[in-house]
Each structure stands twice: as C-alpha cells, then as structure tokens.
C-alpha cells in the first residue's frame, strides 16, 4: 500500500494505491476532479477505472464537492447515511452559500485562482458507511464515526499502519494544531478526538496540513482547547466581515 497526497484547490486529497485498485480519501472540490484524473493517468500511469471507490468524510465543498463528478465517471462513492441532508432546507441552503463563500475566501488567502466550486447538494451513495465496519472492497480500512465538525463526519482508519484520514477534524497551520471551523457539536467533537486517543492512532492524514504524527500529549492539548459552545459558520462569516470593515477603515485613514 502506498498513500499519495494530491494538492487540491484548498486542501489535500489522499490516494491509496494497491497493485490492483485505488481508493480516494475525499473527493475534493468540484474543480479537483481533473487533477485526480490527471494524477492517476499521467503520474501513476494507471487506468482511471482502477479507482474503485471515493470515500467522503463530510459534506463541505472541499470534501464532497467533487463526488458527483466521480459518480458520473462511473466511480463508486460512499459516505455516512444522511450526510447529504446537511445542506437541505432553508437553513441548509444558507449554509451551502456560506460554505461556498468561505471556500473562496480560503482560496483567495492561499492565492489560488477563482474556480467553479458549485456542487450538487444531494448525491446518491453507492454505499453507506457505518461506524466500526470496514470500507467496501478495502477490508483493512475501518470507518469510524467522528462527528462534531458537522453531524456526520467519518474518519477512515488503516489499523495496520496506525494511519487515519481525519478530514477536517484536526487542522495544522504553521506547525500548530488547530480546531476546525465550524464546530457545530462541541461535545461530539470532543468525543471524536478522545476516540482517536482510545484507538491509539499515531499517523494522521489531514485535509489541511498534510501527513503528520500527533502524540497523545498533543492530542490531549487539542481536546483541552475544544470550546464548550458551538461555533457556527454564521459566526465565522460575521467575524470575517468585521475584519474586512476594520481593514477598510484602516486603509482609508
Ligand atoms: Zn469541513
């Protein structure tokens, strides 16, 4: 088994390579589909159809945005049941737009070009994933419920190498581990991090921050910093608008 890190629009995707198959950990943004296709056919010199499954950790644009394109190309996709309900209804529609705007904001900060990241809010899974079961077709990978960032985050754990893809549950920024935004369910989020401790996970594949070893002490420190109240993305948007107004005032002085 070999794990390749692919640089997506604002995040890393991980492609797990086996002699007879490929497994993709998160589908990336809508615009990341050709990047993965190019990596498989030109870097690995393999057939695109060797990609047997795309796992989705949660529904945010930089994780589930490309799912529909993989599905359309005939690749199976899998996620936790009801994951794609997150953006339904009036509140879901509002959150969809906020998350699209926040993704563009991060892209701008990272000096990435403006790209189309709109994606279907509802997608049909080929497989639903459940806690404690193995990934369809890849029995050495385990699905673990790890909610809190959203209501249906999943972590994908390769026990033999003690390596887990944790989506957005831990973010590494300038050598520091930070808590993702939003944390919609702080209690669940804390439990998810404690679950990482109990599982004894050592190597973490982060969507934002690359591959890293996190010690029990470092994980404990992150757990201690989990807020008691939810941080939702309207709070983040308000904060960003506030900063923007402040900067505007400063520059006009
Ligand atoms: Zn996220």
Polypeptide structure, described:
The chain is an alpha/beta fold and 253 residues long. It contains 7 helices and 14 strands. The chain starts with a strand and ends with a helix. It has helices at 33-43, 61-64, 67-72, 89-109, 186-199, 216-224, 233-252, and strands at residues 2-7, 12-17, 22-25, 51-55, 76-80, 127-129, 134-135, 138-145, 154-158, 163-165, 171-173, 176-178, 203-206, 210-213. The mean pLDDT is 95. It has one domain (2-224): Metallo-beta-lactamase, Chain A. Strands 1-2-3-4-5-6 form a 6-stranded mixed β-sheet. Helices cover 34% and strands 24% of the residues. Helix 4 (89-109) links the parallel strand 5 (76-80) and strand 6. It binds zinc ion. The site of zinc ion has 6 residues, from loops. Zinc ion binds next to loops.
